[in-house]
TrEMBL record:
SUPFAM superfamilies: Carbohydrate phosphatase. InterPro entries: FBPase_class-2/SBPase (IPR004464). It comes from the Bacteria. Belongs to the FBPase class 2 family. Its cofactor is Mn(2+). This is Fructose-1,6-bisphosphatase. The lineage of its organism: Bacteria, Bacillati, Actinomycetota, Actinomycetes, Micrococcales. It catalyses: beta-D-fructose 1,6-bisphosphate + H2O = beta-D-fructose 6-phosphate + phosphate. Pfam families: FBPase_glpX. Mn(2+) 2 binds at residues 79, 82, 208. The gene is glpX. Mn(2+) 1 binds at residues 27, 51. It comes from Gulosibacter chungangensis. GO terms for biological process: fructose 1,6-bisphosphate metabolic process; gluconeogenesis; glycerol metabolic process. PANTHER family: FRUCTOSE-1,6-BISPHOSPHATASE 1 CLASS 2-RELATED, FRUCTOSE-1,6-BISPHOSPHATASE CLASS 2.
Length: 314
């Protein structure tokens, strides 16, 4: 639960940068706040996935040790803002995210920035399969959900590389929910039962894939991913590092423990959590905390006193 203070802090510090067109400044403010708050949490965390290398953004770097140096040894995957461009533009769906698991359990394919992913809720167990055509995945999941294909909603990042995937989804009869950014939230929304999204598919960031896997474990959902090198050099680096580029990785390969925590706080409003709200002397944050071992989904609304946050020493 202490971890939520770190994502709250990152989200609050990003607020002055919402809609200011400067994504590195937003990210930088969130990174600093998260680093500072993580230093007070009782654990010995090592950052395995520090988002930012792909976009050359400010980041918590891989190998960085966080926490107060006492307590359990952990792997950390962190994205102080998933959706920095959304934040900079003043768009919805930006989140501050952290995922924690036992030390040595997070898959770390740092040589490859992208991963092909498919995510669904508990009904997708034994059904979703990255190797099958998308139309078959949709049809079988619809069946398991007791829905018509026409009522299925599939979240996909709106990118030119997904042109065919989007066309295939629509040709199957299902609808698409195109995301500007933020496929962590897309994956979680897909795994939540009774949500508007039934499945999240497509190529997104590898760090976001590991973070999503931690959340999926907490939601008892299903996920598969396969590394997606952008060019021959990345492909060769990955092979040299011992990665099997054909392997379909499940959530249990991506994070090899059930002792995972996932925490996110809304920066801007979104389908999963509301954005930071500032009113008079109060700042309100909306967060979700998922604990895989107990399968608990907690919503945490916190009210912070603005005067405490105006003081940088707080
Ligand atoms: C996604 C999205 C992220 O990276 O993973 C995406 O969820 C994939 O990369 O918010 P491209 O943007 O290069 O397509 C982010 O946009 C963050 O970089």
């Amino acid at each position: 639960m202490e971890l939520v203070r770190a994502t709250e802090a990152a989200a609050i510090r990003a607020v002055p940068w919402i809609g200011r067109g400067n994504k590195n400044a937003a990210d930088g403010a969130a990174v600093d706040a998260m680093r500072k708050f993580l230093a007070t949490v009782e654990f010995q965390g090592e950052v395995v996935i520090g988002e930012g290398e792909k976009d050359e953004a400010p980041m918590l770097f891989n190998g960085e040790i966080v926490g107060n140096g006492r307590g359990p040894l952990c792997d950390i995957a962190v994205d102080p803002i998933d959706g920095t461009s959304l934040t900079a533009a003043g768009r919805q769906n930006a989140l501050s995210v952290i995922a924690v698991a036992d030390r040595g359990t997070m898959y770390n394919p740092k040589e490859v920035f992208y991963m092909d992913k498919i995510v669904a809720g508990p009904a997708g167990k034994g059904i979703i399969d990255l190797d099958r055509p998308i139309a078959d995945n949709i049809k079988d999941l619809a069946n398991a959900l007791g829905k018509d294909v026409e009522d299925m909603n599939i979240a996909i990042l709106d990118r030119p590389r997904h042109e065919k995937l989007i066309a295939d989804v629509r040709a199957s009869g299902a609808g698409t929910e195109l995301m500007l950014d933020g496929d962590v939230a897309g994956g979680i929304n897909a795994a939540l039962e009774n949500g508007r999204i039934d499945m999240c598919v497509g190529i997104g960031g590898t760090p976001e894939g590991i973070i999503t896997a931690c959340a999926i474990k907490g939601l008892d959902g299903v996920m598969q991913g396969r590394l997606y090198p952008r060019n021959d050099e990345e492909r060769q680096n990955a092979i040299d590092a011992g990665h099997d580029l054909n392997a379909v990785l499940t959530q249990d390969d991506l994070v090899r423990t059930d002792n995972t925590f996932f925490v996110c706080t809304g920066v801007t409003d979104g389908g999963l959590v509301r954005g930071v709200n500032r009113e008079r002397n109060q700042i309100t944050t909306d967060s979700v905390v998922l604990r895989a071992r107990s399968g608990t989904f907690r919503r945490v609304t916190a009210v912070h006193r603005s005067d405490k946050w105006l003081n940088d020493e707080d």
